[in-house]
Amino acid sequence: MSAPHLTTTLPQTMFINGEKTRSAAGKTFPVFNPATSEELAQIPDASESDIDHAVRTSKAAFESDTWRNMPPAARERLLLKLADLVEQHTDELATLETLNQGKLIGFAKMLEVSGSVQWLRYMAGWATKVEGTTFDLSIPFPPGTRYNASTRRVPAGVVAAIVPWNFPLLMAVWKIAPALACGCTVVLKPAEETPLTAIRLAELAHEAGFPPGVFNVVTGRGETAGAALVKHPLVNKVTFTGSTEVGRIIGRQCADDLKRVSLELGGKSPVIVLDDCDPRKAIEGAAGAIFFNHGQVCTAGSRLYVARSIYDEVVQGITAVADSIALGSGFDAATQMGPMVSARHRDKVLGMIAQGKQEGGEILSRDARVERDGYFVRPTVIANRACKPLSVVREEVFGPVLVAMPYDDLDDVLGEANASEYGLGASVWTNQLDKALRLVDGIEAGTVWVNTHNMVDPAMPFGGFKASGIGREHGKAIIDSYTESKSVCIAY
Ligand code: NAP
Ligand code: MG
């Protein structure tokens, strides 16, 4: 089936052991264009036996001479080649992403594809820099014995990577690039809503020369395919990005199996505007923090705290921005915000807005409901002047919904910012260095931005405090996440 804006056929198979693969039972599920509600393709609905096949393939690849004995520099070259291929396929990959996920084509190119290229190149460099240490031992037993002791870092094994639908290609690359750099093999399950770019990524990895079975993509539903992958006994490490609810399920399973696990989960990130901040800068910054990628960002700045002296001006300004945003297809140059990823998600977001209103929030922006095809939600600003514990203040919406509270005192706002089960990101908007640093010190979050929000980089660790997850991605620390430490002790 070919699709509008695409000259090639849509990817419609899994990719296992270097081959396009259908589900053995022939079962499929549909994926949609969220801007039109049209069905795009039927994708394999993997069963437990399909997952078993993919994991066994991945295990065999892990143990094969070609991968195990491949010099690190050769792994680096493969990742660099994959980065080049992704870059050369920018238009195709971005088109697939916009078609299937709904995001703006410009962002798909600039952030999703170009970001993937950057991450692949950065992680390629780590392949040759995995290292251990040597040290002297203090216990001479039996007497007179000497020891030569060291550690080496060895690949963790077969990695199960499970990713969500908000940045389908980039999230896949955040998992596979470090895993492959470290010498692991991977079975990746994209979200059921957005599997197309992940499948294409695996095809490109094959073209780059990765041995068959080293990087596999399975498609299917979380409760079946995802769960079967997590509990497969040949999987050594699970890396997951998605909701806290599913993160808990996966964490429990991995605890039972004693598997290594990293969890990148939900957020309810505070944006704190101090009284010295230029209101225009605050409006632009806070609107960007919540409306970027239609609010479907784990670090979305969804709780806004503004110094009371400038609260009205800032909140009115953001409401004007929200009301002026042009909704439409991500392919249309005039569009400033695309649809929610699915009908189910649109209904969840609309339901949470309605609940916020019912609990006493004041909706300042236009009606969030949109009468047109596709899964659109109009950006929404909710004033919560009385700082009530609304559900929309506590729970992750994952949509373009901002709730705004005034504050009087820095200690109070710090308390409010931390009064959340989440701790993923936060931003502080001020030029007062002492106050900025006091907030940086006090905020319980994996990343605190000052005068910016949502900035990520392959060199900068990323992850959550509290219910926002366990572990950090990116940077040097990622090596520990995909390797085991092996101590070697030689008596002489
Ligand atoms: P989700 O259920 O957490 O899905 C994330 C990934 O996990 C998907 O690939 C999903 O597969 C898979 N999965 C689901 N249940 C699983 C299980 N029992 N075992 C193994 N894998 C499983 O997220 P969602 O349903 O797409 O979205 C629900 C809410 O999660 C959103 O409204 C949002 O609040 C939040 N969310 C957060 C993030 C984040 O980055 N923090 C990302 C996405 C969503 P399926 O796609 O087949 O379900
Ligand atoms: Mg789901």
TrEMBL record:
Its EC number is 1.2.1.39. Keywords: Oxidoreductase. The active site is at E264. Pfam families: Aldedh. NCBIfam families: PaDhStyDPseudo. It is an enzyme of class 1 (oxidoreductase). This is Phenylacetaldehyde dehydrogenase. Belongs to the aldehyde dehydrogenase family. The lineage of its organism: Bacteria, Pseudomonadati, Pseudomonadota, Betaproteobacteria, Burkholderiales. It comes from the Bacteria. Residues 24-488 form the Aldehyde dehydrogenase domain. GO terms for molecular function: phenylacetaldehyde dehydrogenase (NAD+) activity.
